[in-house]
Amino acid sequence: MTGLFDLSGTVAIVTGSSRGIGHAAAVELARHGARVVISSRKQDACDRVAAAIDAEFGAGTAFAQAASISDKGALERLVAATLDRWGRIDTLVCNAASNPYYGPLAGIADDQFRKILDNNVLSNHWLIQLAAPGMRDRRSGSIVIVSSIGGLRGSNVIGAYNVSKAADFQLARNYAVEYGPDNVRVNCIAPGLIRTDFARALWEDPERIRAANEQVPLRRIGEAHEIAGAVVYLASPASAFMTGQAMVVDGGVTI
Fold first, then answer.
1. Using one digit for the tens of pLDDT, what is the confidence trace for 130-183?
2. Among 99, 163, 227, 252, which residue's Cβ finds the most Cβ atoms within 10 Å?
3. Can you name the residues that pair with 192 across neighbouring β-strands?
């Protein structure tokens, strides 16, 4: 570990961290010295991940606080529990998201569209509002939104999801403008197709994944740990002059 990537003494909340990209990010943040808050919908799943991180990196490295991103009260409790336990939040990773609809945007029901926007945009806005005040007071902090390359492209299958992820890019840009004078940075990561349970419908079909890989210069989909390094970078002093940006990590597919 070098000073550029040293997160010792910092505290990070990672939503959706019981599996997939969020889990990989929490592990790597802990590996680089951060204390991590594991959060997803189910407390038992969070407890298992926190226990495993403590076993690998030392007791007290992680704690678990379940929270549904659709429940503002639960997010308030997540932030309050973190502050009660460790007194600060240095990094917020807004990773949790949902996509209850696959199909043409023209056919989506209003409640499905609202759920996507609420969970993928509004919940991030809530979390940022809750976590940022302490960062601004200390004049130090990093907020990372896990968006998607879907926010850069159209789709006849996940159009509503892509709309929400495009909105996340602007959410980061706007908060970067507002919080920049207080030295709080806000950035997005835009992964391509990653082998997670969340994206299973897009990679489990052999024919679909074969066709998809033909369009990727690296000729494969990504793995969750390959996004975690970007999270560590954005949380660390290495990215101290980067804010309001979208870091694309997609094997080259968007080029």
1. 999 999 999 999 999 999 999 999 999 999 999 999 999 999 999 999 999 999
2. 227
3. none
* pLDDT, tens digit (0-9, with 9 covering 90-100), for 221-243: 899 999 999 999 999 999 999 99
CB 166 within 8 A of CB 117: no
Contact between residue 8 and residue 33 where contact means Cβ atoms under 8 Å apart: yes
Given a contact cutoff of 8 angstroms between Cβ atoms, the answer to whether 189 and 215 are in contact is: no
In sequence order, the β-bridge partners of residue 94 are: 145
Q: Which CATH number fits domain 3-249: 3.40.50.150, 3.40.50.300, 3.40.50.720, 3.20.20.190?
A: 3.40.50.720
Give the tokens for residue 233. 């970078």
Q: State the DSSP H helix or E strand holding residue 213, giving kind and residue range, or none if neither.
A: helix 206-214
Catalytic residue among 101, 161, 175, 233: 161
pTM: predicted TM-score of the whole model, two decimal places: 0.94
